[in-house]
Design goal:
The protein is built from 10 helices and 14 strands. The protein has 2 domains: about 10-160 and about 310-325, Rossmann fold, CATH 3.40.50; about 165-305, Rossmann fold, CATH 3.40.50. The chain is globular. By secondary structure, the chain is of the alpha/beta class. The longest helix has 17 residues, at about 80-95. The strands form 3 sheets. Strands 10-9-8-11-12-13-14 form a 7-stranded mixed sheet, with helices on both faces. Strands 1-4-5-6-7 form a 5-stranded parallel sheet, sandwiched between helices. It has a two-stranded antiparallel ribbon with strand order 2-3.
């Protein structure tokens, strides 16, 4: 065993007997509280502040020696600040002799930089995975990564939960007739196919051309959308250029009601303005990113909570139980 390396077999034996403690960063305190309430543990006491020059400072205000520590901190906007805060939290927990440190990242930033699409580009998703591991995290729990291969960027265990079932349940309760699942691009086709099968409906795919980052132009539609109530499924909505372009395209092709489901609602830049003008009746997202301000600004946005899902994953992780049932 290398210096500083943990005896994982010994840790597994002791983990069930160690106390589970949950701490929240500043990225999504509302979700963290809901998760802690579900766990019936309450949030641990922690001090997070900035120095005058903007440096992050973290201190645990209770003993965490030998405890199973879960740090809830996503890396949504401001991405770099939230990421640095997570790293400092992990380092503080490691230096406080936590038995195991799990980074719970409801949203994993930099996930779109998962490959070299052009010369002299970084693979920043791999970089972020490496520094999280290096900081001292023992495992990561996240939700709907932009691409599955990011799991292989980590040298520690990672559980990639999915909000698909909750989003599908919302659609089922709408009781829409003549429903059609639409993949907004070829990259979303695989997941959209699975969703269409579970909803017992057909699939259409919109092929798009992307001129540059955050800009997309819908090209042509594969499948019949005329007279159908359409629901688009994607992993995230950032500037909303893609979904609004797709919504316009399928509306012109004769689609009736159009809804959009996404795990992560970033709503950057002019996203809300674009959605307000688009032929979209509802945008359903999770609370992986705080949505209160977005909902207040645009009534089309509906939110389903992932608190129960993450809570169950944390409980099963703490007890060293399988969480495969959460992916079904």
């Amino acid at each position: 065993m290398l210096p500083g390396e943990r005896n994982s077999k010994f840790d597994l034996i002791l983990m069930k007997d160690s106390e589970l403690v949950v701490f929240s960063g500043t990225s999504n305190p509302g979700l963290a509280k809901s998760i802690a309430d579900c766990l019936k543990t309450g949030l641990g006491r922690i001090e997070i502040k900035r120095f005058a020059d903007g440096e992050k400072y973290v201190r645990f205000l209770e003993n965490i020696r030998g405890k199973d520590v879960f740090l809830i901190q996503g890396t949504s906007n401001p991405v770099n600040e939230n990421l640095m805060e997570l790293l400092v939290m992990i380092d503080a927990a490691r230096r406080s002799s936590a038995a195991r440190i799990t980074a719970v990242m409801p949203y994993f930033g930099y996930a779109r930089q998962d490959r070299k699409a052009a010369s002299r580009e970084p693979i920043t998703a791999k970089l972020v995975a490496s520094i999280i591991s290096k900081a001292g995290a023992d495992r990561v729990i996240t939700l709907d990564l932009h691409s599955g291969q990011i799991q292989g960027f980590f040298d520690i265990p990672l559980d990639n939960l999915t909000a698909s079932m909750m989003l599908m349940d919302y659609i089922k309760h709408k009781n829409l007739d003549n429903l059609l699942v639409v993949a907004p691009d070829a990259g979303a086709a695989k997941n959209s196919t699975k969703i269409a099968e579970k909803l017992g409906t057909e699939l259409a795919i919109v092929n798009k051309k992307r001129a540059k980052h955050n800009e997309a132009e819908a090209a042509h539609i594969i499948g019949e959308v005329e007279g159908r109530n359409c629901v688009l499924f994607d992993d995230m909505i950032d500037t909303a250029g893609t979904i609004c372009g797709v919504a316009e395209a399928i509306k012109k092709a004769g689609a009736k009601e159009i809804m959009v489901c996404a795990s992560h609602g970033l709503f950057s830049g002019q996203a809300l303005e674009r959605i307000s003008k688009a032929p979209i009746s509802e945008v359903i997202v999770t609370d992986s990113i705080p949505q209160e301000a977005h909902q207040k600004a645009l009534g089309k946005i509906k939110v389903v909570s992932i608190a129960d899902l993450v809570c169950e994953a944390i409980k099963r992780t703490h007890q060293n139980e399988s969480i495969s049932c959460l992916f079904e």
